[in-house]
Amino acid sequence: MAEVIVAEPPEDKRLAAKAEPDLTSRSIAVIGSGWAGCAAAVELARAGYKVTLLESARTLGGRARRVDTDRAHLDNGQHILLGAYSETLRLMKLTGVDRKQALLTLPLQMRYPDGSGGMDFAVPELPLPAPLHLAAALLRAKGLQREDKLSLMRFSTAARWMGWQLNDDCSVSELLQRFDQTPRLIQLMWRPLCLAALNTPPERASARIFLNVLRDSLGARRRSASDMLLPRVDLSALFPQAAAAFVEAHGGSVRTGAKVQALRPIENRLWQLNISGAAVGGTWSTYFSGVVLATGASQAATLLHDIPDTDTAALCAQLTGFAPEAITTCYLQYDPATKLGQPFYALLDDAENHQYGQFVFDRGQLDPAQAGLLAVIISASAKAADQPQELLAEALAVQLAVVFQRPELGRPTWFKVITEKRATYACSPGLVRPSNASGLPGLAIAGDYTASDYPATLETAVRSGIAAAALLNRSAVQ
Predict the structure, then answer these.
(1) pTM for the full model?
(2) pLDDT at 278
(3) How many angstroms separate the CA atoms of 75 and 69, rounded?
(4) Distance of CA 284 to the CA centre of its chain
(5) Which one, of 308, 297, 315, lies nearest residue 264 by Cα?
(6) Which region among 280-294, 366-380, 436-450 has the lowest average model confidence (pLDDT)?
(7) Residues of the chain with pLDDT > 70: what percent?
(8) With bands split at pLDDT 50, 70 and 90, how would you rate the model's confidence at 310?
(9) Strand 324-333 and strand 50-55: pairing?
(10) Cα separation of 360 and 355, whole Å?
(11) Residue by residue, what is the 3-state secondary structure of the chain?
């Protein structure tokens, strides 16, 4: 088997030439090209601002990006979008992304390999409105006993009656116990959904946030809101690259390999940025009328802490208080003729018996160029990622061979393990997240860690970027 790598963005050749300082009232710097930063940049460019998008890495996308390895072009993690991701889909359309070509749309499902001890729950492709489509899926579900189905119906009915709201937050496990959910339904439905959506185990995940996710998917009035959208293209091409092209087409610029070392407010509500990196010829200082700080929470805290003559202590403490959660993706390459029965399956994980995989995706069914490539996902993966990487990959290959009853899956030709150690934060009960307002004129914060009904998802990041852009736009006209 091949070597293991940890994601490290490759060099990007799209760097524009070094610019002179811009003192116009319509110049905005967006620091960070994750999905929040890209969303903010697009909205500001659309509003007529001259946007400079700054990224310290070589590849756009932040914690959802392409990774170029010695074996193949991969992603640093597998994502599933939902039909409820209205703002993400809107900006993708605005920037020219063809949804049908970029995303595979599947009805809501939780399907396990035949004979693996799981279940088969899938919304039928019938013209049934919500919530009848879910009722039909439950009636047709295999692998659930009558008491499991009644348990799910009871939970759904009670949650709708509650308006999918919870006054006093608690853990997801406590919520499920409160509604008498069966152990099997928890194992096969609620636990994997919680891990996939919140990247936090149910025993320490926020029930309030979990209900919000269910409200806008299972509980939505539009049937399409519960659709599952699988990327057919790499994550950088899915939105960040289109966002960068949109910014440039609207008179802005995109600079990769440019690390912001310091922020400093100066007179007339301007901001001075000190930037370093080979991309800018060593060091560079310039001025902007506004800044969107769209880095990770800890990086944002570092930059805010070093701003002179300001009181950002409380905000910095909040930003550094997030507990990180890792996600591990193991890519296993087989003969190109190798194919699973459907684009993805849920897996029964059992870490005590070295079965770490929670979902497996057949990348060849998303992109023919990746035929024979399977991606196994482990959410909240800190313990699994501590395993020797070669042994982890071998354990996952054996797990697939056993659950699919296909011995050849135990012998991949090569593998790559990619762990994002700070993929998200632990979405715990009662977690207080900062607003987009920094408290400093002309400086807004964007990221999936800002205040939201949702956990750390792509939609959360996009909505945060939009909110930060709106905040700067409002302050500019006041």
Answers:
(1) 0.92
(2) 64
(3) 10
(4) 32
(5) 308
(6) 280-294
(7) 93
(8) confident
(9) unpaired
(10) 12
(11) CCCCCCCCCCCCCCCCCCCCCCCCCCEEEEECCEHHHHHHHHHHHHCCCEEEEEECCCCCECCCCEEECCCCEEECCCCCEECCCHHHHHHHHHCCCCHHHHEEEECCEEECCCCCCCCEEECCCCCCCCCHHHHHHHHHCECCCHHHHHHHHHHHHHHHHCCCCCCCCCEHHHHHHHCCCCHHHHHHHHHHHHHHHHCCCHHHCEHHHHHHHHHCCCCCCCHHHHCEEEECCCHHHHCHHHHHHHHHHCCCEEEECCEEEEEEEECCCEEEEEEEEHHHCEEEEEEECEEEECCCHHHHHHHHHCCCCCCCHHHHHHHCCCCEEEEEEEEEECCCCCCCCCCEEECCCEHHHCECCCEEEEHHHCCHHHCCEEEEEEECCHHHHCCCHHHHHHHHHHHHHHHCCCHHHHCCCEEEEEEEEEEEECCCCCCCCCCCECCCCCEEECCCCCCCCCCCCHHHHHHHHHHHHHHHHHHHHC
> Distance between CA 60 and CA 105 in Å, rounded?
24
Give the residue among 88, 74, 80 at the shortest CA–CA distance from 107: 80
Give per-residue pLDDT as tens, 387-420. 999 999 999 999 999 999 999 999 999 999 999 9
pLDDT at 2: 32
CB 277 within 8 A of CB 259: yes
* Single-letter code of the amino acid located at 443: L
Q: Which structure tokens are listed for 126? A: 């019938």
* Three-class HEC string of 282-348: EEEEEEECEEEECCCHHHHHHHHHCCCCCCCHHHHHHHCCCCEEEEEEEEEECCCCCCCCCCEEECC
Question: What is the C-alpha to C-alpha distance for residues 97 and 386, in angstroms, rounded to an integer?
Answer: 38
Do residues 15 and 279 lie in contact, with contact meaning Cβ atoms separated by under 8 Å? yes
Amino acid type, 178: R
pLDDT in tens, 226-256: 999 999 999 999 999 999 999 999 999 999 9
The residue type found at 415 is: F
